[in-house]
Amino acid sequence: MTGYLTANDRPGEHAESWYAATAGPFPDHPVLGEDTSAEVCVIGGGFAGLSTALHLAGQGVDVMVLEANRIGWGASGRNGGQLGFGQRKGPEAYEKVIGKASARRVWSLGNSANQLVRDLIREHQIECELVENGYLDAAIRPAHARDFRDYPAFLADEYGHETARYVEREEMAEMLGTTAYHGGIFDTRGAHLHPLKYALGLGRAAHAKGARIHERSRVTKVSLGLVETETGTVRADHIVLAMNGYIDGLVPKAARRTIAINNFVAATEPLGETRAWQVIRDNIAVCDSKFVLNYFRLTPDHRLLWGGGESYGRRFPRDIPGLVRRAMLEIFPQLGDVPFTHAWGGTLAITAPRFPVFKEWEGRLWSISGWSGSGIHMATMGGKAVADAIRGDRADWEMMSNLPVPPFPGGDWFRAPLVAAAMTWYGFRDRL
Fold first, then answer.
1. Residue 415 pLDDT > 70, yes or no?
2. Which one, of 86, 73, 94, lies nearest residue 8 by Cα?
């Protein structure tokens, strides 16, 4: 069966995205070509895996990263570039299952994750076009706007989160140049960046600290203490699974709490500064409240970078530009004359409650995944948490691993079709 690693992309090459076209020179790490050993073997060269390697190598741990393709090849190098804050779900969702005191700790860790990204960028001088102008959550329906209205006060009063404010519909139209939204929440903690440059920067920083990185080294089998590829093996005291949507059944027990979905992004030709500011006045990151949400931002050369649309099989649709364009023109019909120069897809992993998955088996096999669209900050934090746990500091790991994330129904064979049917229904509701 064709897996997500090979269904849509050329092995060993980055997708033909605007990110890949503008990322600059790529490092060329060698293929694993021998039987070797390491204290820790990390599988996956995205945000989570590279953050794990960086935080371990920085403490003198012998760590190796195995990446099936290239550093930042997966969702880490293809996403919308939006640096969020908090957890993927709001704190009230955590209150219901772990209580308010624990929910406050989880929410605080999500906010610390946002700061961790900024700190790593500055500490390691990662040039990734970080723009710290804020994040706008836009209500696509009047009912959503009503739900938004009191939410900033709730965050401030109950969680000490005082950087968010409600935005009325009239101001939304001024900020975004569209009347499609009925209100919103603006938070100054949000930011946006070039995610592939950020991933490459994490890789350079980890390598400089002593991490060994091997690209084009697809793992074929994992057992306790041993990782096998087609060209070599690694014996390791600890193995970290950091593949997210690209696990492809490699370790079924680690994959059962997530499901892979595809998401799509496109970049317009440069709009020019004046027209770009008419679309997004303050150069902020924007996400809306649709179930299959839209997310968009500007690039340094004044393109509109638009993400939206999903598919639930392994194959990408034939017409990615058409899929993304339809969503964009629903919000900004004035851009009907603007062509796309790049359009691409990627695969991410979601969980049923949208809580991330932190699992360990026998204290030697670790899995971090299920970022559910919040991977820039949460995957970076996840890498640090597992690195800390391996070294004996388990506080953040225990907090996250105690979150209830049930397996998807249907077992290994039927969970994907069942989830696809459910997601299609919710996507249909967006169009009603």
1. no
2. 73
